[in-house]
């Protein structure tokens, strides 16, 4: 038990930063998706020191409550890191519907668009997952309209964006009208396809976010960042045929 606490990245004096587990994760690498198994960084001798000592030697085994606490601390560390486990998330996050995804507020996105994070972000990609008639009726400036999975594959995976040199980040922010279904679903799709293209844990796009409240909430607070400065809902009565057609294509 004493050895585990000394090597835990969440306890002062431990090895800096958690080491990702081997193997392929499920979905968005959320610790809620399953208990993690983890190997401590360091020399073989250091790792061997964590093995149980037989014949009654060494410290007494930890209680189940203590082991669970250690596991929870390690899982929390993983959730705070981006998808390739290289660094913590840059943007402040808020609670969202899906605990396996990272949500940002409309105010944080407005700060990104205003250059507040320009010293750290080399490029930000805003993916608008709404249907084209919604996008044409008003969208966030600079956003790309990718309503279907094949659009995401063609735009982001077949021709992946290369991060800028100098260590600046490439971040991708997804949204739809409310960011409840289409945006989160497309974000998960990109992560799953990105994982399948690489040796774990490498990724083209390790830092993904969801705009909480979607375009509707962002437009209500920051219409000056939208063009045209308008909002066309998905269920607009003038576009019922387009809605039916795109819903069919999305299945």
Output the keywords.
7 strands, alpha/beta, Rhodanese-like_dom_sf, mitosis, Oxidized Rhodanese, domain 1, 9 helices, five-stranded parallel beta sheet, cell cycle, two-stranded antiparallel sheet, protein phosphatase, globular, 251 residues, Rhodanese-like_dom, disordered N terminus
What is this entry, summarized?
By secondary structure, the chain is α/β, with parallel strands linked by helices.
How many angstroms does the end-to-end distance come to? Answer: 50 Å
**Sheet with the most strands, sense and barrel status:** 5 strands, parallel
What proportion of the residues is helical, as a percent range? Answer: 25-40%
CATH topology group of the domain at 93-250: Oxidized Rhodanese, domain 1
Shape: globular
Strands, count: 7
> Which assembly state applies to the chains in this document?
single chain
Keywords: Cell cycle, Cell division, Hydrolase, Mitosis, Protein phosphatase
Pfam family, one: Rhodanese
Organism: Peucedramus taeniatus (Olive warbler)
GO biological process, one term: positive regulation of G2/M transition of mitotic cell cycle
């Amino acid at each position: 038990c004493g050895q585990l606490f000394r090597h835990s990245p969440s306890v002062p004096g431990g090895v800096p930063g958690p080491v990702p587990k081997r193997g392929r994760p499920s979905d968005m690498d959320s610790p809620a998706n399953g208990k993690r198994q983890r190997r401590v960084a360091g020399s073989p001798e250091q790792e061997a020191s964590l093995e149980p000592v037989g014949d009654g030697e060494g410290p007494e085994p930890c209680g189940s409550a203590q082991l669970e606490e250690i596991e929870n601390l390690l899982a929390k560390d993983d959730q705070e890191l981006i998808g390739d486990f290289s660094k913590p998330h840059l943007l402040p996050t808020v609670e969202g519907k899906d605990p396996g995804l990272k949500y940002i507020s409309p105010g944080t996105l407005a700060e990104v668009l205003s250059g507040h994070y320009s010293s750290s972000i080399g490029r930000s990609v805003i993916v608008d997952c709404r249907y084209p008639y919604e996008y044409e009726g008003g969208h966030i400036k600079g956003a790309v309209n990718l309503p279907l999975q094949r659009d995401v594959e063609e735009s982001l995976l077949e021709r992946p964006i290369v991060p800028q040199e100098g260590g600046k980040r490439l971040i991708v922010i997804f949204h739809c009208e409310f960011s409840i279904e289409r945006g989160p679903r497309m974000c998960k799709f990109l992560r799953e396809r990105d994982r399948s293209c690489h040796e774990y844990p490498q990724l083209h796009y390790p830092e993904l976010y969801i705009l909480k409240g979607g375009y509707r909430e962002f437009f209500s607070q920051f219409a000056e960042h939208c063009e045209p400065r308008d909002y066309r809902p998905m269920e607009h009565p003038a576009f019922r045929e387009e809605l039916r057609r795109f819903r069919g294509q999305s299945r």
